[in-house]
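User: Structure please.
Assistant: Input sequence and predicted structure:
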Amino acid sequence: MIQNLIIGTRGSQLALWQANWVKARLLESQPNIEVQIQVISTKGDRVLDVSLPKLGEQGKGLFTKELEEAIVGHRVDLAVHSLKDLPTELPSGLEIGAICEREDVRDALVAREDVKSFAALPEHARVGTSSLRRQAQLRAVRPDLSIEPIRGNVDTRLRKLDEGQFDAIVLAAAGLHRLGHAGRITEHLDEDVMLPAVGQGALAIEIRSNDPATAEIIRRLNHEATSVACKAERAFLKGLGGGCLVPIAAHARIEGDTLNLRGLVASPDGTQQVTGVRTGRSSDAVSLGLELADELLSRGANKILR
């Protein structure tokens, strides 16, 4: 019997690339299915004239709420998200069915042609980003820079750079790679300069908790090492009680059975930072994330978050 699956996705070029990538992997792994893609507009796609930090509590689920409502309402069977956009607390009845193999986790600087590196940015250069995490870390290293908000999809941001509105912009390297813009990257930023967002570079497939047939199909796309690393990062984020509207960063690496998790909490202006590392067994990923969160809270992260 052929099973028909409907994937819900945002309509941006990157979101469609991600949905079509998942569709192709599903058809490869399970020949007796049909897969359709349904585009769903989210609040994050419609509200483009307000920077993300200014949205405050209204920004929670900015890119996911409508997709999740479509899953719950049985209008779609699953949704493909950039994991970094997915809150740590999912609505009742939903779960992550798979986390796909991670792309490049780093952030990337895309600058005007005469700029060869981050260090070569001139004093007071205009750098575009709407991420508090990126703003805080950029300001910590280069307080002289003029950090300005920028919204829109990848192509829109590149166009604004090319029009001279900015001297440089900072984007996730994964999105640039996936859309064929790797050649635009001036420099992949080292983690000592820019620790990535929780879940950056990974795709999450969200499904209904009471849908075992879909869960069985989706499970084949799960990449175990990526899933374990992201569980540690998301546990760290959950332990801090933060989200994408707070300057929090984390990255977990797995080597054999060992997991190394690095985390950061910063003030928006970059003048205060609390960082830490936890190393342990990969089977203890969630515990390691929570332990690192507790450590950073005890060392002053709680004051920064307040």
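Residues 55-59 have pLDDT under 50 and may be disordered.
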